[in-house]
Design a protein that fits this description.
This protein is of the alpha+beta class. The chain is 36% helix and 24% strand. The strands form two sheets. The chain has a seven-stranded mixed beta sheet. Strands 8-6-5-4-3-13 form a six-stranded mixed beta sheet, with helices on one face. Strand 10 and strand 11 form a beta hairpin. It is globular. The protein starts with a strand and ends in a 5-residue tail after the last helix.
Length: 315
């Protein structure tokens, strides 16, 4: 895996780009069968999901079989890496590469600290209220409401969220106070239009209980190098075409017309900056056996024949 730091123009670190090879299918694999999804970790069903026929939302069922690829984080490590999201990103990337059960597969990925979740508190809610509102409720089953929360990129825990009395939450609340809490690792899944928590359920719970903004690292797939190269060529072509258009206007109307650089330049810079970092849709593999296999797994996991029959929990 090749790693490349992503920075702003002023040198501020924003993310870590990961180029992964020789991993054709991940251990934490998303399978699809018509409107149904199955997330499996090393053949263990982790999450079953069924999209509504009207595409207004997704029914889901969690199995509690998910296991994080990030080992327990010691307090000493938290203090040593506090304030260094780049060092946390390198550490998490190594675990994602080395540990069984990882999500990584061939392609380019980004571990970014600039999640849109950090920017979308438009109503200026207190952190505890805002982050609680982003959590998808329900265990073992629940519903992701695309009609009410379209584009809101909610957070779906891969296991039950711990309560405030949990020993881990208590320990992490102290780290919140001390400003050394390790980041929560999220994975954006386009097929669900939400984030899954890969690691940090207790850390997120601690942040919510302390009404603090949790530190985040978001994992998502980005454009491969050939797409970036093609996009760069197109952006440069459009930039040159815009300058040529302004030059034609200047030839007719004189020097009162600007040369266009002030208009076209920022647009070019923004496109070049976004090309290697913008999210791409999550890959899903065809489920062997298709919908019949999905129903069989649903029946075995849930014991609910109605859910397995039509993809919706019984009333």
């Amino acid at each position: 895996m090749r790693r490349t730091d992503i920075t702003r123009d002023d040198g501020t670190w924003t993310g870590l780009s990961l180029d992964v090879e020789s991993r054709r299918q991940p251990d934490l694999c998303l399978f699809s069968a018509e409107r149904r999804l199955l997330l499996a970790q090393q053949s263990r069903p982790v999450l079953l999901a069924a999209v509504d026929e009207d595409q207004c939302g997704v029914e889901f069922w969690r199995t509690d079989a998910y296991r994080s690829v990030i080992p327990p984080l010691r307090a000493g490590t938290a203090r040593a890496l506090a304030g260094h999201p780049d060092r946390w990103a390198y550490r998490f990337a190594q675990h994602l590469l080395d540990s069984p059960g990882s999500r990584l597969h061939d392609g380019r990925w980004l571990l970014s600290q600039e999640s849109p979740l950090l920017r979308w508190n438009y109503n200026r809610l207190p952190p505890s209220e805002y982050w609680t509102s982003l959590l998808v409720e329900g265990h073992p089953d629940g519903y992701i409401d695309w009609f009410e929360h379209s584009g809101s990129w909610e957070i779906l825990p891969l296991r039950r969220m711990p309560d405030v009395g949990d020993a881990r939450v208590k320990a992490y609340r102290k780290q919140v106070h001390d400003g050394v809490l390790p980041p929560v690792l999220l994975w954006w899944v386009s097929g669900l239009d939400c984030h899954l928590i890969l690691d940090g359920h207790a850390r997120l719970a601690a942040s919510i209980s302390e009404s603090a903004v949790p530190p985040l690292l978001q994992l998502h797939r980005t454009a491969p190098s050939d797409e970036v190269a093609a996009g760069t060529r197109l952006a440069v072509h459009d930039y040159e075409a815009e300058l040529a258009r302004f030059a034609g206007l200047r030839a007719v109307h004189g020097s009162a017309v600007p040369d266009g650089a002030a208009v076209a330049g920022p647009s070019l810079a923004r496109r070049l900056r976004e090309l290697p970092t913008a999210p791409r849709r999550t890959w899903a593999w065809p489920l062997p056996g298709g919908e019949v296999r999905w129903r069989r797994v649903a029946r075995e996991v849930t014991g609910d024949r109605k859910w397995a029959a039509d993809g919706r929990p019984s009333a």
